Amino acid sequence: MQYLLGVASSEAGPKYLAVREALRRRASALPEHTLLPPEPALCAEYGVSRITLRRAVDGLVADGHLVREQGRGTYVSRPGIRHEYRESFVHRIAGFQQVMTEQGAQVGTTVLSQQIVPAAPAIATELELPVAEDVVELVRLRSVDGLPNHVVRSFLPAARYPKAATEDFGHGSLYEFLRREYAEDLAHARIVVDVGTAAAEEADRLQIVAGSPLLVVRTTVHDSSGHPLVHSFSRLRPDVSQVEFEVSVGGR
């Protein structure tokens, strides 16, 4: 994962990022192997220097959205599977299954564990419950187009959601289950991204080497009154995953 720590100049900062995002959206709407216009034409179109354009293109090449061929130009490519967590204040809270299915991917789910357990202190804090209060713990292995993507552990208050202990979560979305069975209002999600390493059993499930780095995404979903409904943490293969945040401000 890369972090933008500073901006050397106005051109290397906002312009570069804005052009990269514009090109990313453009590439995603074009067929694979489509040839982009030459550099001078793109510089004129976006109103930037060649240095700024190349920085934007370099990032998209590194991410797999574009590919350069010496003497031929820059072509649209397709990156590895993207795992997207999205939060939009004016649209919805959409889970992994829904987002990836809308992108045309085949999502698979294997339920590894589904049981009622006492809430550990960290989980109790997230769900605003007493320590050791009963919670439903749901552990799932998620795959995309047949390849393992991540393991997700979700926790829900057992007294509030008793059906979660017996529901078949081999198909469908946990968020949609809460809307359908309990008419819950999923209004806000707090998302924290961290890094970790894969333990032996986890690495075997994800088909990676033990000790490999993982992206760790912790999500707590609240209703419109601020009450926590569900807390999850997903451990993702970074080679096939990208965490994306979408934020809308002021209803725009």
Word description of this protein:
- The chain is α+β, with helices and mostly antiparallel strands.
- The protein has helices spanning 11-28, 39-46, 50-63, 96-102, 121-127, 174-182, 200-206, and strands spanning 66-69, 73-76, 86-87, 93-94, 107-118, 134-144, 147-157, 188-197, 213-222, 228-236.
- The protein has a 6-stranded antiparallel sheet.
- Strand 9 (213-222) and strand 10 (228-236) form a beta hairpin.
- Helix 1 (11-28) packs across helix 3 (50-63).
- The longest helix has 18 residues, at 11-28.
Q: Which terms summarize this structure?
A:
7 helices, 252 residues, Arc Repressor Mutant, subunit A, 6-stranded antiparallel beta sheet, 10 strands
